[in-house]
Amino acid sequence: MEELAYHILDIARNSLEAGATAINITVEEDTEQNICRFTVADNGWGMSPQVLRRLEDPFFTTKSGKKVGLGFPLLRAAVEQCGGEMLIESKPGEGTRVCAAFPYNHVDRAPLGDMAQTICTLLAGNSHVDFKYTYIFNGRQVKLETQEIRKRLKSVPLDHPTILLWLRQYLTETTQALHGGDDYEIARRAG
């Protein structure tokens, strides 16, 4: 996968397929500590220790009709390529937590990608799920909590096209503001 946002999207979709009604996504970039880390935690069905042990086998999947499951093996490869760390915790009936950490300035680290689009993609068709998204850059943060937004919108669904467009713009602009308005991915790659 070319961007970390694709891994986050894949993990969150797994959460949805596992019956999650609440998904918490946190992304942190800290240039001083040289870390880029993301965590996806859910309250879905969770996985048994047996499934957890086989999760990174590309020829194992819990999805019916599929013969391979490449999401976690690809994430593991991306993490190891940079000398990062990955942790997957899960308990049946309690949910799953996936955390991946990379050296921020490692030349082989994939760019974060378009998290605003990723969050809006998850919201489309899943407006009943409580999403919490937190993006932290050098200690400053942007938060989005769908439960709070739903209260303010009252009868307008979160996946209404106008709302999704507004949310994408809000996330894009507030994230850029944390970076001083610059296109930080281009600057990071050039620097």
From TrEMBL:
Claim: Chloroplast is one of the keywords in the record: no
EC number: 2.7.13.3
GO BP term, example: phosphorelay signal transduction system
Keyword vocabulary terms for this entry: ATP-binding, Kinase, Nucleotide-binding, Transferase, Two-component regulatory system
SUPFAM superfamilies reported in the protein's UniProt record: ATPase domain of HSP90 chaperone/DNA topoisomerase II/histidine kinase
Domain annotation Histidine kinase: ranges: 1-106
Catalytic activity: ATP + protein L-histidine = ADP + protein N-phospho-L-histidine
Keyword NADP: no
InterPro entries the UniProt entry points to: HATPase_C_sf (IPR036890), HATPase_dom (IPR003594), His_kinase_dom (IPR005467), Sig_transdc_His_kin-like_C (IPR004358)
Superkingdom, taxonomy of origin: Bacteria
Name of this chain's protein: histidine kinase
Organism in which the protein naturally occurs: Desulfofundulus thermobenzoicus
